[in-house]
Structures are given as C-alpha cells and as structure tokens.
Model the fold of this input.
Amino acid sequence: MAASVDVLTIGYAHERVASSVVLVRENDVVIVVDPGMVASRAAILDPLHALGVHQDDVTDVIFSHHHPDHTLNAALFGHARVHDVWATYFNDHWGERTDVIDGAPSVTIWDTPGHTPQDISTLVRTAAGLVVCTHLWWSLAGPEVDPRASDQAMLESSRARVLALDPVTIIPGHGAPFSPADLAR
Ligand SMILES: [Zn+2]
Ligand SMILES: [Zn+2]
Done:
C-alpha cells in the first residue's frame, strides 16, 4: 500500500510569504497539507484542478502548526476534516487527535516540536519511499537556526528524528522538496 504526493505550491519566505501546499492521496482519501498563505487562491486551486481534484473532494486537511501562513486558506475545503496537534475538527465537532487518517494507512501524523510546541509532520509512505511534509526546515537553503523557533534544541532533535526515518524526500514549509542527502552539501 502506498500514497501519492503532489506539491501544489512551493512555498517561500522573503518579502512575501507562501506556504508549501501539498496534496496526498490514498484510496478515497484526499488530503491537503498546509493550505496557508499563497499569492492567490489560484496557486492552490489551479494545480489541484489540473490533477483532477475538486476542492469539495478534499476529505482531510492537516496543519503542520498554527501559524497563519500555513492555515489561512483552510476554508477552501468545506467538506474536509481538519487535523492538528490537538484534535480533529469538522464543522462544530471537536474530536480526538489521531495519528492516522481513516482510509489512508500510509499516512501518519507525528509530533515534531521545535518551530512551535505544536508542530507536527506528515509522514507519507509512497512507492518511492518515505516523504515527509514538515516545517522543521523552511527550505534546503536554511535558515539552519530558525529565527522563529520556540525551542531550537528541540527543533534539532525533531530534525534528527525525522532524518533517522531515512526519508527519500522532505517537503519543507517554505521551499522546494529536497533529499536529505542535499543537506550535507
Ligand atoms: Zn510557523
Ligand atoms: Zn511558516
């Protein structure tokens, strides 16, 4: 069993800020990770539609953490359950936190604090190997020391835990996907 991963928007953080927005699909489950700030909603919806997915088909949204640059556009997905470090939310139902998503056994939500105490990473087993969507890195280019981190030591420990999983690809909060091998260069 494996899920598929498509990057809808590659994030950036310069004078302007956009989140990396990622689509994960397995069986009938359609997940959007971090529907946050983007130049316009078309930067999320156009690539989604190009993949044959309508926003109402999205079943789940995952927030890597609670900052607005990663959550602002969640309401685009009116039929989706929303997952964060604390709970699962749907309309006015505040349900239990789950590490797994019904119907998507290849997807796991994992606590990776450091940038904030409420950071989670989305682990996705794909046919090519493990892909991790995470804000533990902004981008391959850095910053190595996160200027916004609530706890840099914890951030580094969370990074090490993720790397120990031997992922093939990391999709950082504000940059293009990279291979962990690229970090050593
Ligand atoms: Zn943040
Ligand atoms: Zn961010």
Observations:
- The longest helix spans residues 152-164.
- Residues 67, 69-70, 135, 173-174 surround zinc ion (ligand 2) (CB under 6 Å).
- The chain has one domain: 4-180.
